């Protein structure tokens, strides 16, 4: 029996940023509406992150709980968003740029994460830095995996 080749690409609506069959680079770079929604979303996300930082400051040498929480929550929300834009709201072209790239891109802060680790190491708090490094990566990956799985299960349950 001859084996049929398996198509590695999904069928149905797919995000042009992840579907290698679609070259969306030219379209995106010239679309001021997309740039505008990303900018507005980024301002909202960065403001939210700033306010969390004000309300939950990290003392020198202390564990950066605020930044850890921001990054884990943001990654969880990204997991939910990606399921929604790829499986449910496939025709909403501005949703992912606004919420994903803008709001959640501005809210999550892996640059602050890197600076926090550098400051902890410079302040001779290598153990705290290592714990923070591992907790952020593991927490972010678990948040994405958990929210993607839960969102897909909820969508499947609601469609019955």
Q: What does this molecule look like?
A:
There is one protein chain. α2 packs parallel to α4 and α3 packs antiparallel against α4. The two termini are 37 Å apart. With 160 residues, the chain is an all-alpha fold. It has six helices and no strands. It is globular and about 50 Å long. The model has no long low-confidence stretch (mean pLDDT 83).
Q: Concise description?
A:
The protein is mainly alpha-helical and 160 residues long.
Highlighted features:
mainly alpha; 6 helices; 160 residues; 0% strand
SSE pattern, N- to C-terminal: HHHHHH
Number of helices: 6
Give the % helix. over 70%
The amount of beta strand, in percent, is under 5%
Average pLDDT taken over every residue: 83
Structural class: mainly alpha
Main sheet overview: none
Low-confidence stretches: none
Name the overall outline: globular
- Report how far apart the termini are: 37 Å
Number of DSSP E strands:
0
User: Roughly how many Å is the radius of gyration?
Assistant: 19 Å
Explain the layout of strands and helices.
Blueprint: H1 25-29, H2 32-55, H3 65-88, H4 95-107, H5 110-122, H6 126-158
